[in-house]
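Consider the following assembly input.
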Amino acid sequence: MSAQVIEAPKQHISLKKVLSPIHIWGLGVGIVLVGEYMGWNFSVAKGGALGSLIACWVIGLLYTCVAMIDSEVTSTVAAAGGQYTQAKHIIGPLMAFNVALYLVLAYTMLEAADATVFGDLLQEVAGNFGVANLDPRPFAFLCIMFLAWLNYRGVFITLTFNFVITAFAFVAIILVFFGVAPWSPGVVLHHADLIHGLPYGWIGIIAAFQFGMWYYLGIEGTCQAAEECRSAARSIPLGTMSGMITLVIAASLTWYICSGLLPWEYLGQATTPLYDAARVTNSTWMQVVMFVATVFSNLASANGCINDASRAWFSLSRDRYMPPVFGAVHPRYRTPYRSVLFLIPIAVSFAFTNLLDQIITFSILSGLLGYTFMSINMMRFRRLWPLGSIHRGYIHPFHPLPAVMLFLLCTTVYFATYLGYGSQLLAIMAFFIIASLWFSLHRYKFVKRGDQFTMPWPRPKGY
Amino acid sequence: MRLVPDRQHRGGMAKNHYVPKVQSGFGQFIDCVLILVLVYASLYAPLLMQANSGSSAASSSEKPTWQSLKQNSFEAGQWQKLGYTPEQAQPIIETRFEYSISWPVLGLTAAVIIGYYLFMLKVSDKEYREVIREKFGDRP
Amino acid sequence: MGFWQIFSDLSWAVSVLMAVWMIYDTWRVQQEYDESFLMSSREGAEELSAKETDK
């Protein structure tokens, strides 16, 4: 791209500013809610049903810190790219490059995993109709392609769609919760017969933390939409915090329903735990609702991931951290259309490689590396621009407690990951180290220096 | 590093701006491919290293019953509703994780993560100072 | 050919159609618009500057 503009062009194009708090809620919860329908339950295998509940709440605390910190920084750094743009302004270019890679890879891999599961679900339905071993790939392909097409055509329609299907999936959990009559224990729900303490003791609880992240993984994606909100300072904190409350409720209800219906050994390895829980109630309406909601939660997650990964890739390219051609905005739909298009074959290749386990672990770890960054980021943000020196849309309470707590919890989850996936952890760290060297020694020479700092802020304290 | 005179210097303090190199289309393509190759290498590496998640199932030769699998009557009922016989459920029930800690490997993992962050923060800081100097001029 | 086979083939076809449409649209935009205009978006600054003026 040699046609870089040296002087600011008179006519600017920008991403469309059309989103309201409900879209932010739909984006944040939409990406995550699939974790309630599948994935969280692997924490039960790691630490038993009680271990999973403790993980659910402790990791909930981690994410509350994430949501508080993110809301403050994003209400100030309102730009697509979210944490990437934050890192660029607060810590520095190499950190920003790494954060952008965490985001793009975590979301693209999650999208691929969602599409794979979507294909598998339809394969299972076909199996129930007597068609054995139907190829699930066309459905996974269709899932990615349809959602990418939606994302290409405009953010408003994309996230309105996400809001509707996410709301359905959330209401479905509440409906089933009332359906299993929680007010009369021993009738449908049998916690007393199914919960047997901690099968692995305390270390099982720690090991459960890794999959406890599934309850909330991705809620921080809300700030990728900052540049497209009508008012980012209002929409992002409101959408993220209400999203977080939604998820704590959904996670607790999901645990309560499943642990009261399924033996923990089964639950720990189930593919679709909420749907299986509905199956053992023998209620047709609950089964239908849970099946539809499982499919919807998958679509919502993949859709939100395409939205977020493309924004992160777009911002990265706009600064020339990656090839600048992807920094283009569609003149009619006002979306980062080239980024959306570029990430399709990558997601499809992940979806078709049969590496679901590796992809999910990579995705979780990229998220975890991102949260560790957030705690460091928050400490520096308050130090370089103390309260009162710049306008903040939202100021989170009890600083530095959330940042310190986040840092400690991240350390614990690294330990949990070591317990379950030690070699993957090392392989993924090797990837980020090589990528960092490549960026510093090669890629950074194509990046403008002062232009990276775009916020209308005063000089950072101490620099 | 190529430097040219600053055209918009602030208060005469900033002197030079870095002018980035322009990359060819082919170079951009190679850069994208390289990152993808790295991603795939790190996805496949653990498989090549024969990674396993450390779970094991105790095998027993006798025909299992729900009692021998230590499932109470309610649990046995739920397994049956899910379509499992004791034989089918046995490997699921008897699979156990082994949480063994190898201190040298744990130490290595910790050193890699801490080293990665320290390296990244140090290089970022160096680059950040350059960004701030260009944006706001030399330190007053 | 049963329902599921048709559904499966249709999924491939619709996916490919959408891919072709997106690639065509990207090409068309490239022909119609100046590259420097497509690349002229600026990072979040507009809204923030506007907010500063509002205050």
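The radius of gyration of chain A is 22 Å. Ask yourself how this observation constrains the way the partners meet.
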